[in-house]
Design brief:
The chain is of the alpha+beta class. The chain has three domains: about 15-100, Rossmann fold (3-Layer(aba) Sandwich); about 125-185, Dna Ligase, domain 1; about 195-365, ATP-grasp fold, B domain (D-amino Acid Aminotransferase, Chain A, domain 1), CATH 3.30.470. The protein contains eleven helices and 17 strands. The chain has helices at about 20-35, 65-70, 85-95, 105-110, 110-120, 135-145, 170-180, 235-250, 285-290, 295-305, 330-335, and strands spanning about 15-20, 35-40, 55-60, 75-80, 130, 150, 160-165, 185, 195-200, 205-210, 215-220, 220-225, 255-265, 270-275, 315-325, 340-345, 355-365. Strands 9, 10, 11, 12, 13, 14, 15, 16 and 17 form a nine-stranded antiparallel sheet that branches. A four-stranded parallel sheet has the order 3-2-1-4, with helices on both faces. A four-stranded antiparallel sheet has the order 5-8-6-7, with helices on both faces. The longest helix has 17 residues, at about 235-250.
Length: about 375
Protein backbone atom coordinates (compact mmCIF):
# COMPACT_ATOMS: atom_id res chain seq x y z
CA UNK A 1 0.00 0.00 0.00
CA UNK A 2 1.37 3.45 -0.88
CA UNK A 3 0.38 6.87 0.41
CA UNK A 4 -1.28 7.73 -2.90
CA UNK A 5 -3.77 4.84 -2.88
CA UNK A 6 -7.26 5.22 -1.44
CA UNK A 7 -7.39 3.70 2.02
CA UNK A 8 -10.04 1.04 2.60
CA UNK A 9 -9.52 -0.71 5.92
CA UNK A 10 -11.50 -3.63 7.26
CA UNK A 11 -12.01 -4.81 10.84
CA UNK A 12 -8.80 -6.37 12.09
CA UNK A 13 -6.53 -3.96 10.22
CA UNK A 14 -4.19 -1.68 12.16
CA UNK A 15 -3.96 2.09 12.51
CA UNK A 16 -0.66 3.61 13.60
CA UNK A 17 -0.90 6.65 15.85
CA UNK A 18 1.93 9.16 16.27
CA UNK A 19 1.81 10.56 19.79
CA UNK A 20 0.90 8.84 23.03
CA UNK A 21 -1.06 11.48 24.93
CA UNK A 22 -4.74 11.53 25.80
CA UNK A 23 -5.79 12.17 22.21
CA UNK A 24 -3.87 9.13 20.99
CA UNK A 25 -5.37 7.13 23.85
CA UNK A 26 -8.92 8.08 22.90
CA UNK A 27 -8.27 7.45 19.20
CA UNK A 28 -7.03 3.94 20.02
CA UNK A 29 -10.10 3.26 22.16
CA UNK A 30 -12.40 4.46 19.37
CA UNK A 31 -10.62 2.21 16.88
CA UNK A 32 -11.04 -0.79 19.18
CA UNK A 33 -14.76 -0.17 19.36
CA UNK A 34 -14.90 -0.55 15.58
CA UNK A 35 -12.79 -3.71 15.59
CA UNK A 36 -9.70 -1.93 14.30
CA UNK A 37 -6.35 -2.38 16.03
CA UNK A 38 -4.06 0.47 16.96
CA UNK A 39 -0.33 0.77 17.49
CA UNK A 40 1.14 3.87 19.13
CA UNK A 41 4.52 5.51 18.46
CA UNK A 42 5.80 7.92 21.13
CA UNK A 43 9.17 8.88 22.62
CA UNK A 44 7.66 9.18 26.11
CA UNK A 45 7.78 5.90 28.07
CA UNK A 46 4.98 7.17 30.30
CA UNK A 47 2.58 7.81 27.42
CA UNK A 48 -1.00 7.15 28.61
CA UNK A 49 -1.95 5.78 25.19
CA UNK A 50 0.43 2.85 25.76
CA UNK A 51 -1.97 1.56 28.42
CA UNK A 52 -4.79 0.83 25.97
CA UNK A 53 -2.95 -0.86 23.07
CA UNK A 54 -1.26 -4.24 22.75
CA UNK A 55 1.65 -2.94 20.68
CA UNK A 56 3.59 0.28 21.10
CA UNK A 57 6.89 1.74 19.97
CA UNK A 58 8.82 3.93 22.38
CA UNK A 59 11.46 5.71 20.31
CA UNK A 60 12.48 9.17 19.20
CA UNK A 61 10.80 10.67 16.13
CA UNK A 62 14.26 10.85 14.52
CA UNK A 63 14.84 7.09 14.88
CA UNK A 64 14.59 5.99 11.24
CA UNK A 65 14.83 2.27 11.96
CA UNK A 66 12.06 2.44 14.57
CA UNK A 67 9.86 4.47 12.21
CA UNK A 68 10.34 1.96 9.41
CA UNK A 69 9.48 -1.00 11.67
CA UNK A 70 6.42 0.88 12.95
CA UNK A 71 5.24 1.62 9.41
CA UNK A 72 5.67 -2.01 8.38
CA UNK A 73 3.28 -3.12 11.15
CA UNK A 74 0.36 -0.82 10.32
CA UNK A 75 -1.97 -0.15 7.39
CA UNK A 76 -2.44 3.62 7.75
CA UNK A 77 -0.89 6.27 10.00
CA UNK A 78 -2.45 9.25 11.74
CA UNK A 79 -1.31 11.65 14.46
CA UNK A 80 -2.60 13.23 17.66
CA UNK A 81 -0.58 16.44 17.40
CA UNK A 82 0.38 18.66 14.50
CA UNK A 83 4.01 19.45 15.32
CA UNK A 84 5.40 16.32 13.72
CA UNK A 85 8.99 16.78 12.50
CA UNK A 86 8.97 17.08 8.71
CA UNK A 87 11.62 14.36 8.35
CA UNK A 88 9.46 11.96 10.38
CA UNK A 89 6.46 12.68 8.19
CA UNK A 90 8.47 12.13 5.00
CA UNK A 91 9.87 8.78 6.16
CA UNK A 92 6.45 7.45 7.11
CA UNK A 93 4.59 8.84 4.09
CA UNK A 94 7.01 7.03 1.78
CA UNK A 95 5.93 3.73 3.29
CA UNK A 96 2.30 4.01 4.33
CA UNK A 97 -0.60 6.43 3.83
CA UNK A 98 -0.46 9.22 6.41
CA UNK A 99 -3.81 10.90 7.07
CA UNK A 100 -4.43 13.76 7.25
CA UNK A 101 -1.88 14.23 4.46
CA UNK A 102 1.46 15.52 5.70
CA UNK A 103 1.40 18.32 3.10
CA UNK A 104 -1.33 19.94 5.20
CA UNK A 105 1.17 20.37 8.03
CA UNK A 106 3.13 22.85 5.92
CA UNK A 107 0.16 25.17 6.30
CA UNK A 108 -1.04 24.41 9.82
CA UNK A 109 2.39 24.24 11.51
CA UNK A 110 3.13 27.84 10.52
CA UNK A 111 0.82 30.53 11.87
CA UNK A 112 1.67 32.94 9.05
CA UNK A 113 1.08 30.33 6.33
CA UNK A 114 -2.20 29.40 8.02
CA UNK A 115 -3.38 33.01 8.19
CA UNK A 116 -2.46 33.56 4.53
CA UNK A 117 -4.31 30.38 3.55
CA UNK A 118 -7.49 31.38 5.37
CA UNK A 119 -7.35 34.93 4.03
CA UNK A 120 -6.99 33.70 0.43
CA UNK A 121 -10.22 31.72 0.93
CA UNK A 122 -12.00 35.00 1.63
CA UNK A 123 -12.48 34.15 5.31
CA UNK A 124 -11.87 36.82 7.94
CA UNK A 125 -9.07 36.69 10.53
CA UNK A 126 -7.52 39.17 12.93
CA UNK A 127 -5.31 41.68 11.13
CA UNK A 128 -1.73 40.41 11.17
CA UNK A 129 1.84 41.09 10.09
CA UNK A 130 4.94 39.00 9.41
CA UNK A 131 7.65 39.82 11.96
CA UNK A 132 11.34 38.92 11.69
CA UNK A 133 13.00 41.67 13.76
CA UNK A 134 12.40 44.23 16.48
CA UNK A 135 12.23 46.88 13.74
CA UNK A 136 9.43 44.95 11.99
CA UNK A 137 7.65 44.66 15.33
CA UNK A 138 7.86 48.39 16.05
CA UNK A 139 6.39 49.22 12.63
CA UNK A 140 3.61 46.65 12.94
CA UNK A 141 2.68 47.88 16.42
CA UNK A 142 1.98 51.29 14.90
CA UNK A 143 0.04 49.85 11.98
CA UNK A 144 -2.08 47.29 13.86
CA UNK A 145 -2.40 49.24 17.09
CA UNK A 146 -2.20 48.01 20.67
CA UNK A 147 -2.88 45.82 22.48
CA UNK A 148 -1.67 43.11 20.10
CA UNK A 149 -0.38 39.57 20.40
CA UNK A 150 3.08 38.52 19.21
CA UNK A 151 3.30 34.78 18.50
CA UNK A 152 6.01 32.45 17.30
CA UNK A 153 5.16 31.16 13.84
CA UNK A 154 5.69 27.56 14.90
CA UNK A 155 5.31 25.25 17.92
CA UNK A 156 2.92 27.25 20.06
CA UNK A 157 -0.09 25.91 21.95
CA UNK A 158 -2.08 26.57 25.15
CA UNK A 159 -0.73 30.11 25.35
CA UNK A 160 2.91 29.08 24.90
CA UNK A 161 5.07 31.04 22.47
CA UNK A 162 3.13 34.30 22.65
CA UNK A 163 3.27 37.66 24.39
CA UNK A 164 0.54 40.29 24.72
CA UNK A 165 1.93 43.75 23.93
CA UNK A 166 0.52 46.83 25.65
CA UNK A 167 1.08 50.55 25.29
CA UNK A 168 4.52 51.51 26.53
CA UNK A 169 6.11 48.10 25.91
CA UNK A 170 9.52 48.26 24.25
CA UNK A 171 9.62 46.38 20.90
CA UNK A 172 13.21 45.26 21.37
CA UNK A 173 12.51 43.93 24.85
CA UNK A 174 9.41 42.04 23.68
CA UNK A 175 11.27 40.59 20.71
CA UNK A 176 14.14 39.42 22.90
CA UNK A 177 11.74 37.81 25.37
CA UNK A 178 9.94 35.82 22.68
CA UNK A 179 13.31 34.44 21.56
CA UNK A 180 12.53 33.55 17.95
CA UNK A 181 13.63 34.54 14.45
CA UNK A 182 10.18 34.49 12.90
CA UNK A 183 6.88 35.57 14.39
CA UNK A 184 3.47 36.97 13.59
CA UNK A 185 1.82 39.96 15.21
CA UNK A 186 -1.96 39.78 15.48
CA UNK A 187 -4.21 42.71 16.27
CA UNK A 188 -6.24 42.30 19.44
CA UNK A 189 -9.77 41.06 18.72
CA UNK A 190 -12.54 42.43 21.00
CA UNK A 191 -14.56 39.23 20.77
CA UNK A 192 -17.89 38.46 22.39
CA UNK A 193 -17.14 34.77 22.80
CA UNK A 194 -14.86 32.02 21.51
CA UNK A 195 -16.34 29.12 19.58
CA UNK A 196 -15.10 26.15 17.59
CA UNK A 197 -16.34 23.75 14.97
CA UNK A 198 -15.31 20.11 14.89
CA UNK A 199 -15.57 18.88 11.31
CA UNK A 200 -14.82 15.56 9.64
CA UNK A 201 -14.09 15.07 5.97
CA UNK A 202 -13.90 11.74 4.18
CA UNK A 203 -11.74 10.90 1.17
CA UNK A 204 -14.89 11.13 -0.96
CA UNK A 205 -15.27 14.81 -0.04
CA UNK A 206 -18.18 14.31 2.37
CA UNK A 207 -17.98 16.84 5.24
CA UNK A 208 -19.89 16.46 8.49
CA UNK A 209 -19.83 19.10 11.24
CA UNK A 210 -20.77 18.84 14.90
CA UNK A 211 -22.76 21.53 16.66
CA UNK A 212 -20.80 24.73 17.24
CA UNK A 213 -19.12 24.68 20.65
CA UNK A 214 -18.59 27.64 22.99
CA UNK A 215 -15.28 27.66 24.83
CA UNK A 216 -13.93 29.34 27.96
CA UNK A 217 -10.21 29.47 28.71
CA UNK A 218 -8.29 29.84 31.95
CA UNK A 219 -4.66 30.97 31.72
CA UNK A 220 -4.80 30.36 27.95
CA UNK A 221 -5.87 26.71 28.46
CA UNK A 222 -9.33 25.45 27.58
CA UNK A 223 -11.32 24.97 30.79
CA UNK A 224 -14.95 24.55 29.70
CA UNK A 225 -16.77 23.74 26.46
CA UNK A 226 -20.54 23.95 25.99
CA UNK A 227 -22.56 22.60 23.09
CA UNK A 228 -24.41 24.11 21.45
CA UNK A 229 -22.90 27.59 21.58
CA UNK A 230 -25.17 30.46 22.58
CA UNK A 231 -25.28 31.98 19.10
CA UNK A 232 -27.98 32.30 16.45
CA UNK A 233 -28.75 29.43 14.10
CA UNK A 234 -27.63 31.58 11.17
CA UNK A 235 -24.26 32.38 12.73
CA UNK A 236 -23.78 28.72 13.67
CA UNK A 237 -24.39 27.72 10.05
CA UNK A 238 -21.86 30.37 8.95
CA UNK A 239 -19.31 28.80 11.30
CA UNK A 240 -19.96 25.32 9.94
CA UNK A 241 -19.69 26.60 6.38
CA UNK A 242 -16.29 28.11 7.20
CA UNK A 243 -15.13 24.73 8.52
CA UNK A 244 -16.46 22.96 5.41
CA UNK A 245 -14.68 25.42 3.15
CA UNK A 246 -11.36 25.01 4.97
CA UNK A 247 -11.56 21.21 5.07
CA UNK A 248 -12.39 21.03 1.37
CA UNK A 249 -9.67 23.49 0.34
CA UNK A 250 -7.11 21.41 2.24
CA UNK A 251 -8.41 18.20 0.61
CA UNK A 252 -8.51 17.01 4.19
CA UNK A 253 -9.20 13.47 5.40
CA UNK A 254 -9.98 13.12 9.09
CA UNK A 255 -11.22 15.38 11.86
CA UNK A 256 -10.10 18.97 12.27
CA UNK A 257 -11.08 21.85 14.52
CA UNK A 258 -11.57 25.46 13.48
CA UNK A 259 -11.38 27.95 16.34
CA UNK A 260 -13.24 31.22 15.80
CA UNK A 261 -13.97 34.53 17.49
CA UNK A 262 -17.52 35.87 17.55
CA UNK A 263 -17.14 39.62 17.04
CA UNK A 264 -19.67 42.46 17.16
CA UNK A 265 -20.76 44.12 13.92
CA UNK A 266 -23.10 46.83 12.75
CA UNK A 267 -25.39 44.21 11.20
CA UNK A 268 -25.00 41.68 13.99
CA UNK A 269 -22.22 39.37 15.21
CA UNK A 270 -19.68 38.01 12.75
CA UNK A 271 -16.88 35.45 12.77
CA UNK A 272 -13.10 35.56 12.51
CA UNK A 273 -10.95 32.44 12.29
CA UNK A 274 -8.39 32.20 15.06
CA UNK A 275 -6.65 28.87 14.42
CA UNK A 276 -6.97 25.54 12.62
CA UNK A 277 -6.06 22.33 14.44
CA UNK A 278 -5.50 19.42 11.98
CA UNK A 279 -6.52 16.71 14.45
CA UNK A 280 -9.10 15.74 17.02
CA UNK A 281 -9.41 18.59 19.50
CA UNK A 282 -9.99 19.28 23.18
CA UNK A 283 -13.11 21.33 22.43
CA UNK A 284 -14.63 18.22 20.85
CA UNK A 285 -14.29 16.00 23.92
CA UNK A 286 -17.95 16.61 24.72
CA UNK A 287 -18.82 14.37 21.76
CA UNK A 288 -17.63 11.28 23.65
CA UNK A 289 -20.70 11.31 25.88
CA UNK A 290 -22.83 14.04 24.38
CA UNK A 291 -23.25 12.72 20.83
CA UNK A 292 -24.18 9.44 19.19
CA UNK A 293 -20.72 9.24 17.57
CA UNK A 294 -17.61 10.91 19.01
CA UNK A 295 -15.03 12.97 17.14
CA UNK A 296 -12.58 10.11 17.74
CA UNK A 297 -14.75 7.51 16.04
CA UNK A 298 -15.45 9.97 13.24
CA UNK A 299 -11.71 10.41 12.69
CA UNK A 300 -11.15 6.64 12.62
CA UNK A 301 -13.99 6.25 10.10
CA UNK A 302 -12.51 8.95 7.86
CA UNK A 303 -8.95 7.62 7.75
CA UNK A 304 -10.22 4.03 7.38
CA UNK A 305 -12.19 4.99 4.28
CA UNK A 306 -15.52 4.25 5.99
CA UNK A 307 -18.70 6.35 5.71
CA UNK A 308 -18.93 9.27 8.12
CA UNK A 309 -21.64 9.23 10.75
CA UNK A 310 -24.36 11.87 11.15
CA UNK A 311 -23.94 12.56 14.88
CA UNK A 312 -26.96 13.35 17.03
CA UNK A 313 -26.38 15.49 20.13
CA UNK A 314 -28.00 14.02 23.24
CA UNK A 315 -28.76 17.32 24.96
CA UNK A 316 -27.14 20.44 26.37
CA UNK A 317 -23.56 19.33 26.99
CA UNK A 318 -20.86 20.81 29.22
CA UNK A 319 -17.28 19.50 29.20
CA UNK A 320 -14.91 20.58 31.98
CA UNK A 321 -11.18 19.95 31.79
CA UNK A 322 -9.43 18.69 34.92
CA UNK A 323 -6.20 20.67 34.84
CA UNK A 324 -3.32 20.18 37.26
CA UNK A 325 -4.52 19.68 40.82
CA UNK A 326 -8.16 19.59 39.68
CA UNK A 327 -7.58 15.85 39.30
CA UNK A 328 -7.21 15.48 43.07
CA UNK A 329 -10.94 16.21 43.45
CA UNK A 330 -12.04 13.59 40.92
CA UNK A 331 -14.11 11.90 43.62
CA UNK A 332 -16.70 14.68 43.75
CA UNK A 333 -17.45 14.21 40.05
CA UNK A 334 -17.99 10.48 40.49
CA UNK A 335 -21.05 11.16 42.66
CA UNK A 336 -22.56 13.90 40.48
CA UNK A 337 -25.75 12.80 38.68
CA UNK A 338 -25.35 12.88 34.90
CA UNK A 339 -21.57 13.31 34.99
CA UNK A 340 -19.17 11.06 33.07
CA UNK A 341 -15.56 11.09 34.24
CA UNK A 342 -12.55 10.53 31.95
CA UNK A 343 -9.14 10.21 33.63
CA UNK A 344 -6.15 10.03 31.31
CA UNK A 345 -3.84 7.85 33.38
CA UNK A 346 -1.06 10.43 33.53
CA UNK A 347 1.52 10.77 36.30
CA UNK A 348 1.75 13.55 38.84
CA UNK A 349 -0.36 16.65 38.17
CA UNK A 350 1.41 19.89 37.42
CA UNK A 351 0.13 23.36 36.57
CA UNK A 352 -1.34 23.50 33.07
CA UNK A 353 -1.31 19.73 32.54
CA UNK A 354 -4.60 18.25 31.31
CA UNK A 355 -5.27 15.25 33.55
CA UNK A 356 -8.80 14.37 32.55
CA UNK A 357 -12.23 15.80 31.80
CA UNK A 358 -15.83 15.52 32.91
CA UNK A 359 -18.91 15.64 30.68
CA UNK A 360 -22.37 16.54 31.94
CA UNK A 361 -25.35 16.06 29.62
CA UNK A 362 -28.73 17.68 30.26
CA UNK A 363 -31.25 15.65 28.22
CA UNK A 364 -33.19 17.40 25.46
CA UNK A 365 -36.43 15.98 26.86
CA UNK A 366 -35.87 15.61 30.64
CA UNK A 367 -39.51 14.79 31.43
CA UNK A 368 -39.98 12.19 28.72
CA UNK A 369 -40.46 8.66 30.12
Amino acid sequence: MTSKKRVALKPGDTIGILGGGQLGRMLAMAAARLGIKAQVFSPDPDSPAFDVVQRATCAEYADVEALELFASDVDVITYEFENIPSATAMILAARRPVLPDTAILETTQDRLAEKNFVTKLGIGTARYADISSARDLAAAMKTLGLPAVLKTRRFGYDGKGQIIIHEGDDPQDVWDRLGTKSAILEAFVPFEREVSVIAARGADGDVVCYDVTENEHRDHILKTSRAPAAISDALAEDAREIARKIASALNYVGVLAVELFVVPGTEGPGLLVNEIAPRVHNSGHWTLDGASVSQFEQHIRAIAGWPLARPVRHGQVTMTNLIGDDILDYGKWLTMPGATVHLYGKGKPRPGRKMGHVTVVEPLFPDRK
